[in-house]
Amino acid sequence: MSTTEAPVPVANPRSSFFLRLPVVSHVRQSVGLQRGMLIMGLVLTAVFLLTALLAPFIAPFGFAQLSDGDGNFPAQQPPGGKHPLGTTVGGYDVLSRVMWGTQTALLVIIIAVVLSIFAGVILGLVSGYIGGWLDRILVVVADAIYAFPSLLLAIVMAIVISGGQSSLFGGVMAAAISITVVFIPQYFRVIRAETIRLKAEPFVESAKVVGASNLRIITRHIYRNATRTLPLIFTLNASEAILTLAALGFLGFGIEPSSASEWGFDLSKALADTTSGIWWTGVFPGLAIVWVVLGLTLVGESINDLNDPRLRGRKRANRKAPAASPAANAAPGPDTESSNP
Amino acid sequence: MTTLIEAPPEDSDGLLPAKKKSSGGGLGQYILIRFLLIFPTILILVTMVFFLMRITGDPITAAMGGRLPPDQLQQRITAAGYDRPILVQYFEYLGQLVTGNFGTTLSDNRKVTEMLGTYGSATLELSINALIVALLVGIPLGMLAAHRRDHVPDAVLRIFAILCYATPVFFAGLLLKLTFSVWLGWLPVAGRAKTSTELALTSLQAPTGIYWLDALRSGNMAALGDVMAHAVLPAVALGLLTAGIFLRLVRTNVIGTLGKDYVEAGRSRGVSEFRLVTKHAYKPALIPIITVMGLQIAVMLGGAVLTEKTFEWKGLGFQLATYLTARDYVAVQGIVVLLAVIVATTNFIVDVVAALIDPRVRY
């Protein structure tokens, strides 16, 4: 993350509020392939969100349902008939588990990202504004955590929080907090760098002269300006959260199948099936993970590229009036070569 | 625009707070300070892991709880010294680490250092294979994408890069296994080698534990073929994860250097477009790759854990998963500490190499 970052492109300030919303303005600004990728990402993400919200109504069965009026579900039944995506060894309906899995995923994303934004932003603001030895120590600690394989850290956290076994709430919280610890350094770094830059700005100095307290300067003047890049990091981290959750589940730190549906756990169970040629138990949860991560990443990537004049589509430059694209003056954006587990 | 081929910002940002203050300073000083920074990094991680693991209780209760009568459990806890104050244990643990004593695993009663030695080489082999795949796939494709920017190949390759990132290693592994092992039957399903090969290779004198190296040294071509066949799928699964990142990085940087004056000058002299990409624009674009590779080591080790579990590749990651299931936290702690040391050391090496290549990194 560089110390300079691109401001969210501001459409014409006189245009309506709706058109100035982050994602909407990005769609309007994009051209060609970039627009295609952004819209594809938005569609994938929208389908994911809708499935999560509507899972209780559209899923054919419950995530832990083993039988219906006609008796027990058959085990390892190939896709077709009553079970469009087949059933697992334990007799769960694969389609239902994939659908219910969206809820678990969404829950974990929300909790993890909200927690890490809170902690990361507060630490970053305080560390950047106060500086001194506190800043030094926090930076060294954050860098140490950042350099470490995030999955291992998440494993250690999962052990601490839940001891491995888990109900829905315990499992979701364990996964979310584990992911939070991994993410805090990222938010911390961005916000801290921004705070240090803003601290030297004239408006902060004038606030000091007027007699504003440090707390007020941090919360009113710097906070508003330092958090502009967060939507971008949010989308990138959300996809990372899904991958970490699935990896934890795959290693056996997931949520019990009877308390919630989690794709990573289903995949780990499906691994044994593959040798006998049973593909449907693993392929569909895996595709669900790819779907969600792909959608979120496409949105995040496109926003990142659009914020960065070096990467934005070139056709735009051929248009006439420079005043029409004020964001073209933006500083180079962060190279978000994000690391993932 | 001029900042394009600078080392990625991860490195130039807040990573070395003390260094920025130092006025000037040569390469020697930079390396020294960078070297000294390894120790606080490792210390912080060791401390964090130690205390986190102990919040939940002592390792013996975690591993044996419920399987031993309470009085015997208490006896073992006292014998191992886990009933003493946590700070005493912490400093004792640090002292042991300094002398290279990582303790003994609880589940199978082995020396942790010995266990690390046995399985570390397998993980090393997997990581090297995967890195080779990543470089072979990522760099040429990145150059192609940059060359055909905004055309069909670029679009396809960008989607491919994002797909590489979006597919969890274990799902990629599962798909590869299904396709190439189960349906086509071309490659073995799991493991590092056939049992007979494994026996032949481990009975060698002073085996390195890196199977293809051992097979080469002993001139056992049948074993080499077997080892190679086993290595392909895990290496591809793990390598693709990093290949996508390399691809994007090469693409962005080659696009940047292609716009430079000297490339334009080459073009006006009649240098072919292919040569411009592969010779002129490509080399300066490689510098960021070296720095990113340092960060990728951490990603790769995380991915290795999952790949090893998927392919039953008996390395550190596979053992980690096994010990996690057995709740053997002494072994887990040992593996995590070793990985912390590896990550800190590779980051140091990468930073030094970057400083040697690019003087601007030194400030």
What does this 3D model show about the protein?
The complex is a heterodimer of chains A (341) and B (363). Chain A is mainly alpha-helical. Helices cover 65% and strands 1% of the residues of chain A. Chain A contains twelve helices and two strands; from the N terminus they run αααββααααααααα. Chain A has a two-stranded antiparallel ribbon. In chain A, α8 (202-210) runs antiparallel to α9. The relative contact order of chain A is 0.17. The model of chain A is unreliable at 1-6 and 315-341 (pLDDT under 50). Chain B is mainly alpha-helical. In chain B, 75% of the residues lie in helices and 0% in strands. Chain B has 17 helices and no strands. At the A-B interface, α3, α5, α6, α7 and α10 of A face α1, α4, α9, α10 and α13 of B.
Which features does this protein show?
heterodimer, A: 341 residues, mainly alpha, 65% helix, 1% strand, elongated, disordered N terminus, B: 363 residues, 17 helices, 75% helix, globular
